[in-house]
Amino acid sequence: MSNTAKRMTALALAILTLITLLALSACGGGTGGENDAPAPGENTVGEETTAPAETKLHYQTLSGDYSGRTFRVLGMYNDSYPQFTNFEIWSEGETGDIVNDAVFRRNLDIEQQYGVNIEQKLAEADQAHSNTKLYKHIESTVLAGEDSFDIFFIMLRDADQIIANAYSLDMAEFEYIDFSQPYWNQKTIEDISIGGKVYLTNSDFSLIDKKRTYTLMYNRELCSEYSDYKIEDMIYDGSWTLDIMAELCDAVSFDINGDGVPGIEDQWGLGFDSDKGLCSLLIGMGGSLAAKDETGMPVINVGSERMINIAQKIYDSFNGKYNYFFCGQYPWKVDKTRSYDAGTVFKAGRLLFITSFPQSLVSFSAESDLDYGIITYPKYDESQDGYYTYADLWGCALFGAPVTNPDTSFTGFMLEILSGMSTDTTLKAYYETSCKIKHVYDETSADMLDITFSGIVFDLGTIFDWGGMYSTVISQILSMSGSPAKTFDYVSKWESIKEKAESEMDKTIEIILAREF
Asked: Any idea of the CA torsion for 135, 400, 361, 347, to the nearest 10 degrees?
């Protein structure tokens, strides 16, 4: 069946359902019939209605008929690594997959209500560290002045070039967009904006950013075997800190096979998927490589007192101890691990904590009977104002509007509608599929994801990596070069690149201030 035929069938079913409901209502078969008793507190016949009018969200106040106009969204695909493929933009039809079907129904509702067509275009997102094929496609389109898409998705590893090269517009200036609404992530806008300009962002419409947001998972059985801590309860009351995490890691780690050498067959406290997992621990403790001044412009934060204290606490908690390991490489001179070994050890029940992503939850539930929980990253201490997590530089993506966009009013309208209508449709469906522990919906894990997503940090310092502040300083707090760091040299490493970092950041700011849009 063609896409058009499927949509016509869905429309016919919707009309038939409406006629049936109207008939039931006329016959007294629906709610509010003459035999229905009023609900507690409900007004009876003859009484004036005193209930306050429902406050509508901004997108619910918008109306319009665009007479079949097409809204074009450029997404990305990766055949070798499908986790880097957009799945929230468009669906050909219902298949029984809860997220796919939610995307289809959401789009159908929008298309019928506003007289639009939603079109997905895809460009390849390869595994290059930067200048990916996706980025090059956007760049060539913009430089040629072509009007081929209204918005685009871009991975964070290329976000710096999109912003610095002026390939995207300031969405804060778009008609219809109201960033104060709950379906826009206020933390993201605060983090990613530069001088009040929003060149890239996310909302409840985007899901690939959430799929690639760092989460922590832990083995509930292992935790209860070695402690009385109830981690979710601690998160709720604000007492979940790195000190407790480190204490647990020390308690559970030991040489299972008795060979005296730390290895993949032993039991561990914390498994990092990569050095980016280390950065997520730092961000979770309230750290950031870049902050903002009173004008909303970035300032370097690597050498701040708080960042030094955070780095010191991480170093003291793990360096030289056999309570953690990196995927890809141990921090000691032993056999190297593979990128998926942390997941293997976790599924085998020999790893207490693992840095991971929501995209991995399905495999953990499908391939193991492990009783695991989804939790937030720990705080620095209990005085920290909230829980935070790191947006993965490699696979997390934001969306923006190209400078070739001919009609920002239409784009603003569609982004507002898509963002608002996704909250209770596609986002809800993604929560439901992500939070199935042993294939059963886990409400506590849903709460944890909710807390996690609300605290996503898009750090301009990691995105731009001015002077190598991330690659030279942060990733080396715990050495990945084959042996533990002999001394805590965070400060000296920062001082060695400080001048270069400040120069590169100043150049970025100068370029952005010169922009007129």
From this structure: 40
- H-only helix segments in 73-132: 98-114
Query: Which letter, b or e, does each residue of 65-78 get, where b requires 16 or more Cβ atoms within 10 Å of its Cβ?
Result: eeeeeebbbbbbbb
DSSP state of 250: H
**Contact criterion met (CB below 8 Å) for 199 and 168:** yes
**51-63 as b/e: b if 16+ CB within 10 A:** eeeeeebbbeebe
What is the DSSP code string of 298-340? EEE-TTSHHHHHHHHHHHHHHTT-TTEEETTB-SSSSPPPPTT
What is the model's pLDDT at position 147? Answer: 97
pTM: 0.85
- How far is the C-alpha of 130 from the C-alpha of 161, rounded, in Å? 9
Which strand ranges, in their side-by-side order, compose the sheet holding 69-77?
Answer: 116-124, 69-77, 151-155, 397-400
Pull the structure tokens for residue 204: 């409840």
Amino acid (one-letter) located at 319: N
| Residue among 413, 403, 418, 408 at smallest CA distance from 177 | 413
Q: If you average pLDDT over every residue of the chain, what do you get?
A: 86
The number of C-alpha atoms within 13 Å of 499 and in the hemisphere containing its C-beta is 1
C-alpha to C-alpha distance for 55 and 75, rounded to whole angstroms: 34
CA gap 163, 153 in Å, rounded = 13
Which range scores top for mean pLDDT: 16-25, 151-160, 341-350?
A: 151-160
Find, among 84, 88, 66, 72, the residue nearest to 151 by Cα.
Answer: 72
- How many angstroms separate the CA atoms of 487 and 1, rounded? 66
| Tens of pLDDT, residues 126-174 | 989 899 999 999 999 999 999 999 999 999 999 999 999 999 999 999 9
Nearest to 417 by CA among 65, 1, 27: 65
Chain Cα centroid distance, residue 320: 32
**Measured distance CA(448)–CA(458) in Å, rounded:** 19
Report the C-alpha gap between 121 and 248 in whole angstroms. Answer: 47
- Measured in Å, how far apart are the chain's first and last C-alpha atoms? 44
Residue 253: name the closest of 277, 230, 226, 280 by CA: 226
Instruction: State the DSSP H helix or E strand holding residue 441, giving kind and residue range, or none if neither.
Output: strand 440-441
E strand or H helix at 123, and its extent?
Answer: strand 116-124
CA distances from 195 to 72, 172, 285, 458 (A): 28, 11, 25, 15
**Which pLDDT belongs to residue 485?**
63
Q: Are strands 397-400 and 151-155 parallel, antiparallel or unpaired?
A: antiparallel
Using one digit for the tens of pLDDT, what is the confidence trace for 383-396?
999 999 999 988 89
Q: For residue 248, what are the CA distances in angstroms to 134, 163, 166, 203, 334?
A: 42, 42, 47, 35, 24
Name residues whose C-beta falls within 8 Å of residue 362's C-beta, 6 or more positions apart in sequence.
433, 434, 436
Contact partners, residue 450, CB within 8 Å, separation at least 6: 431
Instruction: Let me know how long the chain is.
Output: 517
